[in-house]
Amino acid sequence: MALERWILRFRSLVSLALILAVWQGVAMLELVPRKYFPPIPDIAAGFWSMLLSGELLAGDSLTLGRALVGIVGSSLIGIGLALLGEMVPAFRSAFRPIAAIVQPIPPAALVPMAIFMLGLGFKLYAFVIILVTIWPPYLNGAAALAAVGDVEVKTGRMLGLSERDILFRIKLPAAWPEIFAGIRYAATISLIAVVVAEMLAGRDGLGFMLIRKAFATRIPEVYALMFVCAFNGVVLNALINLLRWRITGWHMRMTERTP
Amino acid sequence: METMLEARELAKSYGTGAGALKILDGISFSVKKGEFVSIVGPSGCGKTTLLMALAGLLKPDAGAVSFKGKVLTGPSAGIAVVFQDYSRSLFAWKSNLENVVFGMIRNTTLSKAEKRAKGRELLAAVGLDGFADHYPWQLSGGMQQRVAIARGLASESELLLLDEPLAAVDAQTRADMQDLLLELAERFQQTCILVTHDVDEAVYMADRVVVLTRRPTRVDHDIVVDLGDRRDQITTREDPRFLEIRHDVMAAIRRFRAETPLAEKA
Q1: Which residue of B has its CA nearest to A246?
Q2: In the 8-state DSSP scheme, what is residue B207?
Q3: How does residue A113 score in pLDDT terms, banded at 50, 70 and 90?
Q4: What's the pLDDT band for B264 if we cut at 50, 70, 90?
Q5: CA closest to A157 among chain B residues
Q6: Contact A151 B80 (CB under 8 A)
Q7: What is the ipTM of this complex?
Q8: Is residue B95 part of a domain?
Q9: DSSP characters for chain A?
């Protein structure tokens, strides 16, 4: 029992240790030539050299910053569109086919268009990230707002609330947990979209570094960058969880309480 | 005594043309200030539709509801509804106290601190001292319904519309809640209209029982419950007069049940 509690408590570290151990095991068996699948110490050395030269922090702060700006922007736009759809049902119906058409376009397919239209630079990233990440917050938000029950709404009406008050004081608070589920999913997509955009059209950032190192066959560094990408996901998720706890802490406590 | 609420020839249908379903077919009755009126009827007779019209939440096709002499055009200050589904009516993201304070949203004279103090008093009045900072979902069903009642009172209601408020709580809690509602109605000078499918409850709590027909619904009987102001879970329910009234109400409802064709029941 004590061991189980200990594992649960440090579950992230335990998972990380497991991944590294499996990696090291596969590398030591040399199923793949060592050159192409280096052991953990080699990758750590590559990581260390990039860290010391400063290029890692410079590149990763750009990538994380872009992903963060993108996810904040797309969350605000997505929630705004969901609220608009709830206020104006005609908008929601009209927007549905647009969403269905744009949503499946992969981030990489948007990059050429973004280059033609916006050139290289920040606007390109903003365009690509927002276009691929507004969907989860929008779709979850629209569905959750529409699903708020009749009784909640009638309660608001009896207290004399306007339609606008009902939307912002009853429907939106009730919808936040679903919206956050969408934002967390969108955060992962935004990291993918940034790295892809940087690979295809970047002059800096993690994606650009990955391509450059890969062409230079600096393989331990390529893998180190891959691990940094994973780490970015953890960081972004932690940041979102801070906000999620502030806004929907009640829901997290409600769903996590033991029966 | 002055009239608190009056329903005149209320009619309501759902749908149009040949498929239209006539729910209310000219319902008239009135409720005096301070009265406790129960509304009962056969299953599916549109009791809730009627209550929603009385609340101003549903516009009747014909007829009108007047509250304190004024025709209702929508929800009005002074009327509160206690819904059957308390877990949905209470806001899960607000503490119990915040839920009660939300009931005072029309009140612009009290400060925030005064509202919180009044909220605590109301929670104490419904027996929830010490649960102000809990969330509704941390409470049992009966306790949640008490929070909803406190919120209704917080809105400075004069007329409480009770839509099967105790249908979802267990039998033991139910008896306690009936007495609590009666006590609160007196203490806070509430006029009450209770919709219920429980005939015993309807008679036990009310000064008058309005019995509805089956759809299209009209008022079938309007029975005065002359059992005095003090009700007791044991002695009132054994009172021969209670049994007599219960018999009349039950017989009226069952008459409609027997008339219902089998095909319609399925």
Answers
A1: B93
A2: S
A3: confident
A4: low
A5: B75
A6: no
A7: 0.89
A8: no
A9: -HHHHHHHHTHHHHHHHHHHHHHHHHHHHTSS-TTTS--HHHHHHHHHHHHHHSHHHHHHHHHHHHHHHHHHHHHHHHHHHHHHHHH-HHHHHHHHHHHHHHTTS-HHHHHHHHHHHH-SSHHHHHHHHHHHHSHHHHHHHHHHHHHS-HHHHHHHHHTT--HHHIIIIIIHHHHHHHHHHHHHHHHHHHHHHHHHHHHHH-SSHHHHHHHHHHHTT-HHHHHHHHHHHHHHHHHHHHHHHHHHHHHHHHHHHHHHS--
Partner residue opposite A152 with nearest CB, options B55, B89, B105:
B89
CATH number of the domain residue B15 falls in: 3.40.50.300
Q: Is A248 on the interface with B (CB under 8 A)?
A: yes
Whether A205 is in a domain gets the answer yes
Closest-CA residue of chain B to A248: B93
Q: What is the per-residue pLDDT for B256?
A: 78
Range of the domain at B222: 3-78+158-265
A146 in any annotated domain: yes
B75: chain A residues, CB-CB within 8 Å: 157-160
Instruction: Give the pLDDT confidence of B89-99 residue by residue, as tens digits.
Output: 999 999 999 99
Domain limits for position A182: 38-245
- Helices A122-133 and A107-118 cross at an angle (nearest 10°) of 140
pLDDT in tens, B99-113: 999 999 999 899 999
Domain count, chain B: 1
State the pLDDT confidence band at B259, using cuts at 50, 70 and 90.
low
- Distance linking the first and last C-alpha atoms of chain A: 20
Q: In Å, how far from its chain's centre is CA B99?
A: 20
Is 80 exceeded by the pLDDT of residue B40?
yes
Residue B164: both structure tokens together: 């099967």
Question: How much is the pTM?
Answer: 0.87
10 Å CB burial of residue B133 (0-12, 13-18, 19+) is: exposed
CATH, residue A177: 1.10.3720.10
Using the Cα atoms of residue B133, residue B137, residue B143 and residue B146 in order, give the sign of their dihedral. positive
**Strand B62-67 versus strand B70-71 pairing type:** antiparallel
Position A157 in a domain: yes
Position A251 in a domain: no
User: Is residue B190 included in any domain, yes or no?
Assistant: yes
- Domain count along chain A: 1
Instruction: Report the gap between the CA of A156 and the closest CA in chain B (Å).
Output: 9
Question: Count of alpha carbons within 13 Å of B101, Cβ hemisphere only?
Answer: 16
DSSP-assigned beta bridge partners for residue B211: B40, B221
d(CA A11, CA A3): 12
What pLDDT, in 10s, does the model give residues B58-96? Answer: 999 999 999 999 999 999 999 999 999 988 899 999 999
The bridge status of strand B159-163 relative to strand B191-195 is: parallel
